[in-house]
Design brief:
alpha/beta, eight-stranded mixed sheet, six-stranded mixed sheet
Amino acid sequence: MMYAEVLARSMPKQSEGMSIFPRISLKPEVTEYLKSVFLNKEVLTAVGHQEAEHRFHKLLSCLSHPPSYTCVRASTHLAPLEEIRQRLAEELRKQQMCSSSAEEVSVQILPHPRIADVLILPVEGPRPVKQLGSEVVVGAQCGSAVLRGAHVFAPGILGSPKYMKAGDLVSVFSDLEGRCTRGATSFQGKKVFVGNGVAEMDRSTIFCTDEPARGIGIRMVEPLYRSPSFDGVLPNLVFLQNLPSVVVGHVLGPRPGERILDMCAAPGGKTCHIAALMGDQGEVVALDRIRNKIDRIRQNAQMLHLQSVKAHCFNSIQAVSSDPAQETEGPPFPPESFDRVLLDAPCSGLGQRPNMGSTWSLKEICSYQPLQRKLFHAAVRLLKKGGVLVYSTCTVTLAENEEQVAWALDTFPCLSLQPQEPHIGAEGMSGAGLPPEQLRLLQRFSPELSWEQTEATAPLPCRADSDTIGFFIAKFLKN
């Protein structure tokens, strides 16, 4: 059976009628700001007011729901894709046999037709799961992880029934506004149901004050969205990663023997992908400001048997040496030290899914543009002539995406936009004054557009390519 046919049969119908969660909860000032972005004059001229407003409301809806597909990056530098696919299928079958759920579910694992190291697993949901009388409340981040296939780990539990014991069946709810007090026995605040599970620990163990509980607190047996848990599954062969994040590594186009810089590298998924794409031949320098994140990058590289990754705790804004003659293994580096640079910039993260709510102020949302520009200055200086710079974010604003591209092209005459391969997302959004030929060179993953498509009309496998997190990629050449 062809990939498109299999995907069509497994495709969840997630139209507007399937919006089971409320739209993402934002501060009113942030909602108005985003509305002004998605209804800017250029967009209104291109698609009209009604369509622009429709897309904006679709965005708010889809951000609170998980994507319809789980993406796994396969370590094809260690084993062929088909071997990894078969081993993953066997591991997931074992996982299902050990599950407390009586349901037998066939897990489909499909190779992506254009990206040679990606496997796609359709997500089943929303499912008709009946709520139980006993309720466990978890934090919003934990709730989002459950919707992507995770079990509930003890640190994410905020409240539980007073006499909950290991083995009890419970319903799990996500606290939308962060108002549940840790240790609560009941919670009447704003919350959403994410599925049913079995307690793996007593309440007294979870909320023990002497030593924080670790490990799985609630094992999900009836999740609202069914997707396999990858905790401990083939850790050196499969890496759970959003599809656009995998695309970034391919767009960068690393080659064996090159020296490449990942400026904001934690937790190291893209760093390790770059090293794998190079066949572990060359050097991938990973920088991040936080020490324990650097340790995690090194652990990931070691687990994936990658020797070319060199991780350093350092502020990338200061990564350019004032002494051009200085030659050291670690930062700061002389100008023009790298063949390629990835700037996966810190951002407002408004493209992440599922995200049911954010308490950030407009000031916080808008605080990233200056930081991104400081990092961009350092990136251009560190890049060799003829080198490639890829800029990416996981947000949906113009200010952090297309406006940054317009600013970069104006600020650095040596930079020019380049075509991206693969280009499976949409083109850039109008509103930053970029001409159509430049917008076509940009890649914006716009989940609100995937929700415009139905099973009958969507070209396949474009649904898996577009029903992702919100993400942005720009590729530059330094002339």
